[in-house]
Write a structure and sequence with these properties.
Blueprint: H1 2-7, E1 32-33, E2 52-53, E3 59-64, E4 67-75, E5 81-85, E6 89-90, E7 93-98, E8 108-114, E9 120-121, E10 134-137, E11 144-147, E12 150-153, E13 158-161, E14 168-171, E15 178-179, E16 190-195, E17 201-202, E18 215-218, E19 225-228, E20 231-234, E21 239-242, E22 249-252, E23 259-260, E24 271-275, E25 282-283, E26 305-306, E27 318-321, E28 327-328, E29 341-344, E30 351-354, E31 357-360, E32 365-368, E33 375-378, E34 385-386, E35 397-402, E36 408-409, E37 422-425, E38 432-435, E39 438-441, E40 446-449, E41 456-459, E42 466-467, E43 478-482, E44 489-490, E45 503-505, E46 512-513, E47 526-529, E48 535-536, E49 549-552, H2 556-561, E50 563-564, E51 576-579, E52 582-585
Parallel strand pairs: 4-7, 5-8, 7-9, 8-10, 13-15, 14-16, 15-17, 16-18, 21-23, 22-24, 23-25, 25-26, 26-28, 27-29, 32-34, 33-35, 34-36, 35-37, 40-42, 41-43, 43-45, 44-46, 46-48, 47-49, 48-50, 49-51
Antiparallel strand pairs: 1-2, 3-4, 6-7, 11-12, 12-13, 19-20, 20-21, 30-31, 31-32, 38-39, 39-40, 51-52
Length: 588
């Protein structure tokens, strides 16, 4: 499931600001002076020795349809380098917007000057501009300002963005009240940040990816925040807010701390050990995520809450859960590939463990199997349910034996089990059965889960009338599949990300292929669709990057009756569908 989310990436949100209409003091649509570095550029349209370059060779200006005399600006090439001076006006249009991602990935830019008329700077506008040391804003810009090359709002009350190339130690201006979200993201060359007494709010992800940052220094007069040994706390030191990503070695959390905040140690990849004190109650979401050298951790007896993704991507091999824990999020252990056992204290009233696997105390549900568990696993008799994503990422298991008492399996329960896994179902089960290691309902009319590591071709049994959603998802060893005539619908995500799948045999009874059913099946080169088809939903073959040939076994007229949604094969090389009596262009 989480792998799927990584593939189905979304657009970043944009930060909106106000508008202005102050007259210009230096309009220009002619070439602008742009000092460039003397190193060669791979973009041949930019002369490395020029001192004055036609603006069209550096920047792209886009009309804003609803604004007749305005335009936005973005880099023409990621190879643009040196200092960039954005003009006030281009071809009679005032430059008012720097759109989201406009200069993203421009790693050679060192400085950028923003004119008075820019009233909007979109999200990630300068993300990945790793050499950008300064953002300068015209003094008469009514929306933005800059201080020591850092982008601010006009009142100097909000720190908007620190350029990613800024180096060394940085002291925030003492008028700043707010550090905005992602303000220092990716500033890998900063060593320390000094926070003045004025700061009242630090938005989420403000310091993500500051890999060399070793210390925060907070003015003692600050009423909201404090720092000890370079680590950021609330003023009372009861909540540990953020450990700088560059901190190394061993860290002892102060005894005053009751909560480790969301993401507090996230990305602290150089920490080797942590000591948690009695009195700590809450581990927030992603609290230790990405602490890759952290191989052991002792949780205090006072702990009550363990948040989502708390230990993600750590090297912990075993963990003891104290008796007072009343909230344990299953995803807390996601991508803990070395974690072999989770042991719950016998006095815990909500959770229990057997053989290092966590259950609810009531014996109703298996909550989480650690990803490092290996070999054959037999779920104890008496348990009735497997929770959502309970075995996710358990690549080392060779078999899972399910008890007769089991009557419910949650969504994506076996996602990411890419090893040589087989399902076994106990005799007497009234809900499930297994055949050749594949999991079905008891009557074998629904195929529930295909082992993701199972290799070669597979013929779905003729008894099967329905496929469960995601039943073959990420089956990395599946090369060919034959679907019987008893199946009329291929549900969402059924064969999502089956990267080795080269051939699909569809029955002449098939009616529907639903969204994302075959998305990211990158080895599919051709398919034959039956004339019985009535619906192809959006994205059902999206990102099938080798799919160049589709044959429809009906006529052009029949193809015209199929409900073919617009994006059914987006990000594919497919340009046409071949019918029995002609060709139909994709998109027609």
């Amino acid at each position: 499931m989480k792998k799927r989310l990584g593939l189905l990436f979304g657009l970043c949100g944009l930060t909106l600001v106000g508008c202005a209409s102050t007259p210009s003091s230096a309009d220009s649509s002619s070439p602008v002076s742009s000092p460039l570095s003397s190193s060669p550029s791979s973009d041949t349209s930019i002369s490395s020795s020029a001192t004055s370059v036609p603006i069209e060779e550096l920047l792209t200006f886009n009309e804003i349809p609803e604004k007749e005399f305005e335009c936005s600006v973005e880099a023409k090439s990621k190879d643009i380098e040196g200092e960039v001076i954005i003009p006030n006006v281009y071809n009679g249009r005032k430059v008012t917007r720097i759109e989201g991602s406009a200069f993203e990935g421009c790693t050679k830019i060192t400085r950028i000057s923003i004119p008075w008329c820019v009233e909007y700077i979109g999200g990630d506008a300068f993300y990945g501009a790793t050499s950008l040391e300064a953002i300068d804003v015209a003094s008469d810009n009514p929306i933005y300002a800059s201080h020591e090359g850092v982008l601010m709002d006009k009142e100097d009350s909000a720190l908007v963005l620190c350029p990613q190339g800024k180096k060394g130690d940085y002291a925030i201006l003492d008028s700043v009240l707010l550090i905005k979200s992602n303000a220092f993201e990716g500033c890998e060359k900063l060593n320390s940040v000094t926070i003045p007494a004025s700061v009242r709010n630090i938005a989420e992800y403000a310091f993500d990816g500051c890999t060399s940052l070793t210390a925060f220094y907070v003015d003692p007069e600050n009423r909201e925040f404090s720092s000890v040994d370079g680590v950021l706390f609330n003023q009372q030191k009861s909540t540990l807010l953020l450990c700088p990503n560059g901190k190394e070695g061993t860290y002892i959390v102060p005894f005053t701390v009751e909560k480790i905040d969301d993401g507090a140690f996230e990305g602290c990849s150089k920490l080797t050990s942590l000591s948690l004190q009695e009195g700590l109650k809450v581990l927030g979401e992603s609290a230790f995520s990405g602490c890759e050298l952290l191989s052991s951790l002792t949780l205090p007896k006072t702990l009550t809450h363990i948040g989502e993704l708390a230990f993600t991507r750590t090297a912990i091999t075993s963990l003891d859960v104290p008796s007072n824990v009343i909230q344990l999020e299953q995803s807390a252990f996601y991508l803990c590939e070395k974690l072999e056992s989770i042991n719950v204290h016998e006095d815990n009233v909500f959770y229990a463990s057997r053989d290092g696997v966590v259950f609810y105390k009531s014996k109703s549900t298996l909550l989480v199997c650690p990803e490092g568990k290996s070999g054959d696993y037999a779920m104890p008799e008496g348990y009735q349910a497997i929770g959502d994503e309970a075995f996710e990422g358990c690549k080392k298991l060779t078999s899972i034996a399910l008890p007769a008492s089991l009557n419910y399996i949650g969504e994506n329960a076996f996602s990411g089990t890419e090893g040589n896994l087989a399902f076994i179902v106990a005799d007497g089960s009234g809900f499930y059965s297994a055949l050749d290691g594949v999991l079905f309902n008891q009557s074998k009319t629904t195929l529930i889960s295909y082992p993701q590591g199972k290799r070669g071709a597979y013929v779905i049994p003729k008894t099967v009338t329905a496929l469960a959603e995601s039943c073959f998802e990420s089956s990395v060893g599946l090369t060919r599949v034959t679907i019987p005539s008893s199946i009329a619908i291929i549900p969402e995500y059924a064969f999502f990300d089956c990267e080795a799948l080269t051939s699909v045999s569809f029955p002449d009874t098939l009616k529907e292929i639903q969204s994302f059913a075959f998305s990211f099946c990158s080895s599919l080169t051709s398919i034959d669709l039956p004339a019985s088809l009535t619906l192809l939903e959006d994205f059902c073959f999206s990102s099938c990057t080798s799919l160049a040939s589709v044959r429809y076994l009906g006529t052009l007229a029949q193809w015209g009756e199929v409900d073919v949604e617009e994006h059914w094969c987006n990000r594919c090389p497919l340009t046409k569908v071949t019918c029995s009596d002609g060709e139909a262009q994709v998109g027609d």
